[in-house]
């Protein structure tokens, strides 16, 4: 299955109709009435909020529970594609997708304000899908608002599968975790799923194995949400080890304080030609604007003083500041892994490094209350026991 944007009917409807009439007249067509019916039918398919909602409702079985998927890496990422394929293949759920158009994996819990975002239908076999020009949180917020889909709320929101761990303090940067958190804020149960991808070891097929690993937990969550026994005050962060098929099983974990060390590297124009090109363009533009500024400054000063006093000689000093060149500096942020001294095996990154699937309950509170921890622990134990 592939995911591609559907971007049809880019021409104005009136122009399309005129072109169709010209083509028909050249072919000697006499079925004008039938063509008018076809044209009106084509016009009725123009995208709008109402038709999007109706299409979403008509294309799915309303008797099945609605599951909404999003992610942080974009609608074409393999983790999302394989997960959608697996859920559609089961035939048990009404699968909807609302995901970023491009990679927003380190966008955190950011939203788009004072700007208009674009939403485009996407072709994903067996699912109703849209790609959004905003962040992961934008996607979840829009999907749950009722403005895009015909249903009010899905049964479960799944954010993932993300490429790279979201353990420890990385959850604050993670777009995939933010998607699940936004769902919880809106009162919808949610899961975030990440694969501990390592450049030297991981392969694209690992995403399929990761789907197989987490699918039983997803099925258990949907089953128990319908029964009303799924934890309501937290969402679950699921971290899958680097070799999913060789995992040691699920382990309930606690959020750690682990974080890779941030490393800001200066980017020189010599090492990065693109930066030099950007700088030269900006400098040439700056010189042009400075010249315009000088001319405008001189002209403006002349007009004002000529109006106030006649026969006064004008000397413009507008060029004094514009000759000063501002030097831009460029930096690039990278995270460098470092050894952690904490040896508590119940922490998320320790369990993940040991080969376990780390399942961490996360709440909206900075501190996890003991009753939430207990409730999540009881559910995870019973869910995993039931799937064995």
TrEMBL record:
Superkingdom in the source lineage: Eukaryota
GO MF, one annotated term: nucleotidase activity
Region Disordered: start-end pairs: 24-64
Domain Survival protein SurE-like phosphatase/nucleotidase: 67-259
Bias kind Polar residues: ranges: 42-53
InterPro entries reported for this sequence: SurE, SurE-like_Pase/nucleotidase, SurE-like_sf
Keywords, sorted A to Z: Hydrolase, Metal-binding
Similarity annotation: Belongs to the SurE nucleotidase family.
Record's protein name: 5'-nucleotidase SurE isoform X1
Species this chain originates from: Theobroma cacao (Cacao)
